[in-house]
Amino acid sequence: MVSKRMQQSLESAICIRDIFEEGKKLAAVYGKENIFNFSIGNPSVAPPAIVNEAMKEILDSEDPLTLHGYPANVGHPDVRTHVAEYLNKKYKTGYTMDGILMTSGAASAIAILCNTFLDRDDEVITFAPYFWEYKSYVESFYGKLVPALCDQKTLQPNPDTFEAAFSPNTKFVLINTPNNPTGAVYSEESIQKVAEILKRKEQEYGHPIYLISDEPYRNLAYNGIPVPYLTHYYKNTIVVYSYSKTLSIPGERIGYIAMEQTIDGFEEIVATATASIRYLGYVNAPSLQQKMLLKCVDASVDISIYEKTRDVLYEGLTGMGYECIHPDGAFYLFVKALEEDDSRFCQEAKKERIIMAPGSAFYGPGWVRISYCVPFKVAKASLPAFRHLKERYENGEIDS
Ligand code: PLP
Questions:
Q1: Is 244 in the pocket of ligand 1 (CB under 6 A)?
Q2: How far apart are the C-alpha atoms of 1 and 95, rounded to whole Å?
Q3: What is the C-alpha separation between 178 and 227, in angstroms, rounded?
Q4: Taking the CB of the first residue and of the last residue of the chain, which one, N or C, has fewer CB atoms within 10 A?
């Protein structure tokens, strides 16, 4: 009945949403406050007040037929101009309105770019561990996702695995920093190496290889750590951005694709991506959300709340002897499982009422992901459960 392609894909997937739903069922049995559900990346900090205010103002002031009608597929021109100007001021870039395509979040932007670039069996390299949906996006367009495993000590891109991942079929590289699932912010040194290899490979194969930078967590970087803006390192960079996390509005579906006119094939790419918005059935990004950006393009949630939660978990867990890299961004902590089989480790954690996602779901076996977008008091209250879990391993109650 359903496609074999989807059947196979669903059979092999570890679905994080299912894990989340399971956590909700446990909460119904044991009480919400007794379940530590770290499975999903749904923002837990309230959107800034200006978001709702802006929407009310727009609803009251704009002509309803224009506001609720179809805008151009790529979005409202005033919004695209506003985004371009904001980016140019903030990152010293050279965007024009033509290079800003409004999208329904980052997810649709990546799908649009896959449709734009991929022919059957074309390859997309991404740094692993990676956001679990990348594989589905690429395979939906008959491409092949090629993981380049990050350095297992730092979780930064590893130049050797990256270089080895290229083939004449490589169409683009998908990079995500700050990273889901690891929380790593890729350093300037890592980015320079990535750019250097890309430039070399473009020369070797004699065609452009694009760097698609998926940046929904750009604003969620802590202690002032710099998040390099990739167009400064590599010309053929296309930025994908989303307001889902910056403004805590993932249900509203708003983001954009940004391209400078200097990238190879600019006009053809814009035209093909514009058609892809239609062909894939997105038609346009939500009109009210686009207009909201005229007033909120520089707004952000209070990230100090995430930072405080990260600190209590990172310090608590490493203090007990859990191993994890210091996560400088996003709202994820990637922790070494206490046994090789990360799925089994998650099952054991569930007995302590801790719900986490196994690293295997992100091409990071042997690790687990903690999504710490939970209330601070939940994170703090989970620490004795983590301690008990570790003690059970140390006392030989669980053979690892
Ligand atoms: N890319 C990464 C790395 C993500 O973590 C997510 C969502 O969690 C997305 C893309 C999709 O985000 P959006 O809500 O903007 O579609």
A1: yes
A2: 46
A3: 7
A4: N
Q: How far is the CA of 398 from the centre of ligand 1 (A)?
A: 35
Cα(99)–Cα(22) distance, integer angstroms: 42
Measured in whole angstroms, the distance separating CA 358 from the mean position of its chain's CA atoms is 17
Q: What is the pLDDT of residues 307-316, one digit of tens each?
A: 999 999 999 9
Which residue from 126, 133, 218 has its CB within 8 A of the most atoms of ligand 1, so it is best to mutate?
A: 133
- State the pLDDT at residue 5: 82
Closest CA to 106 of 306, 235, 4, 252: 252
CB distance 106 to ligand 1 below 6 Å = yes
What DSSP state is assigned to residue 133? H
pLDDT at 159 over 90: yes
100-153 pLDDT tens trace: 999 999 999 999 999 999 999 999 999 999 999 999 999 999 999 999 999 999
State the distance from the centre of ligand 1 to the C-alpha of 331, rounded, in angstroms. 12
Phi, psi at 84, each rounded to 5°: -60, -45
Q: Please choose from 17, 180, 213 the residue to mutate so as to test ligand 1's pocket, defined by most ligand atoms within 8 A of CB.
A: 180
Is the Cβ–Cβ distance between 123 and 170 less than 8 Å? yes
**Cβ of 180 below 6 Å from ligand 1:** yes
Average pLDDT, the chain: 95
Closest by CA to 108, choosing from 332, 277, 225, 236, is: 277
Confidence label for 20 from pLDDT (cuts 50, 70 and 90)? confident
According to DSSP, the residues that pair with 238 across neighbouring strands are 212, 259
- Would you tell me how many other CB atoms lie within 10 Å of the CB of residue 357? 28
